[in-house]
Amino acid sequence: MHAVVGYRRGRSEPPTAERCESEEDLMVHGSCLCGGIRFEYARAVSEIYLCHCSLCRKNSGAASNAVVVVPEDTFNWLSGDELRQVYTKPTGWSATFCRTCGSPVPARMRGATAYGVPAGLLDDDPGARIGCHILVGSKAPWDEIGGSAPQFLEGLRTPKAGK
Ligand SMILES: [Zn+2]
Ligand SMILES: [Zn+2]
């Protein structure tokens, strides 16, 4: 787990009268591309996970997705409930997205009391940094993973890739 000291605080908007300064600092805010879906969560979250599997590649359109795992009880939807749409594959794997702009949006994780929050949606600096890469065993042939975060061939409990 990375230390949370010394991060730069990002702010999408100046503090307002309704929201006190200390509360603003404690919460990380995020939104989809069109801004219709907005959410927040308590800042005490540790790391960003990058999954390089084929499903996450299609869902993100990129080499990997980037997800912050947020305990359910610290997560709040702020707007856009009616815009959330879920696509579920026959296998049960699902993707939740904004009906208007198509951005992937936070979704409850299967078998966990937590939300998987797409890190690219965050409007504030979450303080978290990349913790590890998973499913690198099925990464795209053109994907060159940089940085020093550990890489796992499958999930967190499987052997690390030879790097
Ligand atoms: Zn949207
Ligand atoms: Zn994946």
Specify the structural class. Answer: mainly beta
CATH architecture descriptor text: Beta Complex
> Which hetero ligands occur in this complex?
zinc ion
How far apart are the first and last residues' alpha carbons, in Å? 20 Å
**Name of the level-1 CATH class:** Mainly Beta
Mean pLDDT: 86
Largest sheet at a glance? Answer: 5 strands, mixed
Order of helices and strands: HEEEHEEEEEEE
Domain module count:
1
- Please tally the helical runs, counting DSSP H or I stretches of 4 or more residues: 2
Helix content: under 10%
Radius of gyration: 16 Å
Tally of strands: 10
Q: CATH topology, which one?
A: Metal Binding Protein, Guanine Nucleotide Exchange Factor, Chain A
